[in-house]
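Issue 218. Parser rejects a valid record. Input:
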Amino acid sequence: MYGMTPVFSEVINQTHAQLLRDGVETELVVPTDVLSISPNSIDDVPPSLFTLYVTDKPIEFGLLVTDEIVLINGYDDRTFVTCVETREPPALEWGRALFDSYRTQATEVELGDTGEIKTTQ
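Output the parser choked on:
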């Protein structure tokens, strides 16, 4: 699962933490300001399944891409307002390409063995 988010949300974090505990490998890109207000550790999450990236590039909407689905989340003043879901192959390709473009411009955040953030940008 690949994603990026312009906001910090405890609900999103809890959902992703449960997926990670269930063995779902996840890569996430967040902007610097979101990382700065996020918890300094990810409890009970196997770091081998989670790769976190930080970017200075603005992220204007949320994106989640799996093998089968793309979710695009819209926010207004950091408040969730809408979600678009699709399984269309062109949308999956677009979502993967967009995520890849953000990830290649981002810096990987080093996580310790217990999920603590060891370095920040």
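Fixed in the parser; the record now loads. The domain at 2-109 is CATH 3.30.870.10 (Endonuclease; Chain A).
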